[in-house]
Amino acid sequence: QVQLVESGGGLVQPGGSLRLSCAASGRVSSINTMGWYRQAPGKQRELVARMSNGGSTNYADSVKGRFTVSRDYAKNTVNLQMNSLKPEDTAVYYCNYWRPIFGDSWGQGTQVTVSS
Q: What is the tens place of the pLDDT at every residue in 54-91?
């Protein structure tokens, strides 16, 4: 079992910035991917950004150039720096931890609201 604790999120005006952080504990693996997904009301959960233990990254097209995912491997944390936020970025953001065989673990979710 992997436990994920998220922090950050909140209300921000369009064009503003927020930073999300997530810490993993428990049965972590040396081979893993950590990242962030989001789910807006009435929509499916979608990938925002993720980074493997080898450093490779994937971003949703809608956030490229605005969001940056980073990791501290020693602390088993993943961060998401979100700049130039738009109203369409409003969603519940979930931290994700994937490891071989066991698959996905999820955080409890944190609300991000972009509104004037």
A: 999 999 999 999 999 999 999 999 999 999 999 999 99
Instruction: Name the token pair of 11.
Output: 């209300």
Q: How far apart are CA 17 and CA 91, in angstroms?
A: 15
- Say whether 98 sits in a helix, a strand or coil: strand
Contact yes or no for 6/110 (Cβ under 8 A): yes
Ordered alpha helix ranges (H), 1-116: none
Distance, CA of 92 to CA of 107 (rounded, Å): 11
- Side-chain half-sphere of 68: how many Cα atoms within 13 Å? 7
How long a stretch of residues is the chain?
116
Q: Is 94 within 8 Å of 78 (Cβ atoms)?
A: no
Beta-strand relationship, 110-114 and 10-12 = parallel
Q: What is the pLDDT of residue 30?
A: 85
